[in-house]
Amino acid sequence: MRYISTRGRAAPRDFEGVLLAGLAEDGGLFLPETWPALSTAEWRALRGLPYAELSARLIHPFCGDALPFEALRAMTGAAYARFGHPAVAPLIQLDHRTFALELFHGPTLAFKDLAMQLLGPLFDHALARRGERVTIVGATSGDTGSAAIEACRDREALDVVILHPLGRTSEVQRRQMTTVLSPNIRNFAVEGDFDTCQDLVKGMFNDAPFRTEQRLAAVNSINWARIAAQIPYYAYAALALGAPDRPVAFSVPTGNFGNVFAAWAARRMGLPVARLIVGANRNDILARFLAANDMSVRGVEASLSPSMDIQVSSNFERLLFELLDRDPAATEAQMLRFREEGRMPVPNAAWRRATTLFRGFTLDDDATLAEIRRLKDTAGYLADPHTAIGTAAARALAPEDPGVPVVVAATAHPAKFPDAVEKATGARPPLPPALADLYGREERYAVLAPDLAEVEAGVRAHTRRNVAA
Ligand SMILES: *Cc1c(COP(=O)(O)O)cnc(C)c1O
């Protein structure tokens, strides 16, 4: 299995190569040169498998010769054994046709654990084989950082630096990052918003000498391995509801477009997906794009669903490349224009193709609180604000055919956003026992200006100290 860049000017790599590289050298994102596809009979044969087994079978086609199946299966077995529910990703029925796919039973209580817990061992395996070490840098609006830190803490071959926007994450999210005092972990709080953090990370990757010197690697959702590791749960839910003999729809609270792109990839592999609903808070660029081909950046505004406070969704480039019939020059031209002008003139034919599958939905904070309350009243279900946007979107935009169930990606545990849930329902969701003392733990992080040179100096100081120690 070989991977190509969406901008067409990077050398193709194998799975291990894209795992370690993250972003391609030409600024593009890696995608499989050809998509693996399963026949109807092959999909049927996957019904009823335990999550770890299913995920190994669906991820392995993306690994090719880079990783033996047995090694991958050992990794998925160990990774998902750490989850707090025997189903790993249980499906909870909310009404006659809506289901919550709970993706928050991992160590940091958000869906990113499903991919990240696998990324840690994948990196270890690749680096041990090569006798190398790398510096992982990442930007987070909250959940990626803690999931990456939990997956990489105390791993020999990895140093980790995570940038988060100062004061823009929830306290639980911040503490899940800043209370990990392992010597290979460092947290920077950047004076800016998530896009500022993401730009700084891109800046480090685009600084070739720095990138080489530090052997930078990424665990943000631009890393292909993360997308690959998110495909299995869409299949798991769909198979449980009757796929491949019954189509399903998915509603995905969306920020960087990684999670919903994994659902798109599952469909590309042959899973019958009738509709993909993209949920947004007031940072609604994707919803505006889908409604009216208006892909234009506005300022990022803080909301009750901070993991979706994003304007520039980096994984959208992957869909764009596919919508443009995999034309790398056209993709690059669009992306460069988007960067310069803050708006992207997607050709009408490509936009129309997107809208045959995708629908966009926006919910403001007040309506999000009302939806959390409604779920508690009608189904006795406590949802976090991100998940609530997904359930509201599912109701508004379910396919006309009532035989199509709608699966909502429940992306965070309600205890991750206790203030919003308490405000909506009067009930404060308790943290699970493993995190019960989080508010009493010591925190460590540095506050930095949004300045590339300063951030690079901070990364150097961290990795030098680590190698010396
Ligand atoms: C990261 C995150 C999202 C957004 O996912 P993307 O893959 O970036 O679109 C949504 N909800 C929660 C709780 C998250 O942590």
User: What is the CATH architecture assignment of the domain at 91-107 and 230-425?
Assistant: 3-Layer(aba) Sandwich
* Count of β-strands: 15
Q: Remind me, CATH topology of the domain at 91-107 and 230-425? A: Rossmann fold
Attached small molecules: pyridoxal-5'-phosphate
What global shape is seen? Answer: globular
Q: What amount of the residues lies in strands?
A: 5-15%
> Into which percent range does the helicity of residues fall?
40-55%
The stretches of 5 or more residues where confidence is low (pLDDT under 50) are none
Organism: Craurococcus roseus
Domain Threonine synthase N-terminal: 2-80
Protein name: Threonine synthase
Keywords: Amino-acid biosynthesis, Lyase, Pyridoxal phosphate
Task: Write up what this structure looks like.
By secondary structure, the protein is an alpha/beta fold. The strands form four sheets. Strands 3-4-14-9-10-13 form a six-stranded mixed sheet, sandwiched between helices. Strands 8-5-6-7-15 form a five-stranded parallel sheet, sandwiched between helices. A two-stranded antiparallel ribbon has the order 1-2. It has helices at 15-21, 40-44, 51-63, 69-81, 112-130, 143-152, 171-178, 194-206, 208-214, 224-240, 258-268, 285-292, 316-323, 328-341, 348-357, 365-379, 385-397, 418-425, 452-468; strands spanning 3-5, 30-32, 91-93, 98-102, 134-139, 158-165, 185-190, 216-218, 248-253, 273-280, 295-296, 343-344, 358-362, 406-410, 446-448. β6 (158-165), α7 (171-178) and β7 (185-190) form a beta-alpha-beta unit. The mean pLDDT is 95. It is built from 19 helices and 15 strands. It has a domain at 91-107 and 230-425: Rossmann fold (3-Layer(aba) Sandwich). Pyridoxal-5'-phosphate binds at residues 110, 112, 143, 221, 253-259, 307-308, 386, 411-412. Pyridoxal-5'-phosphate binds next to α11. InterPro entries: Ser/Thr_deHydtase_PyrdxlP-BS, Thr_synth_N, Thr_synth_N_sf, Thr_synthase-like, Threonine_Synthase, TrpB-like_PALP_sf. Residues 2-80 form the Threonine synthase N-terminal domain. Its EC number is 4.2.3.1. It holds the Pfam family THR4_C.
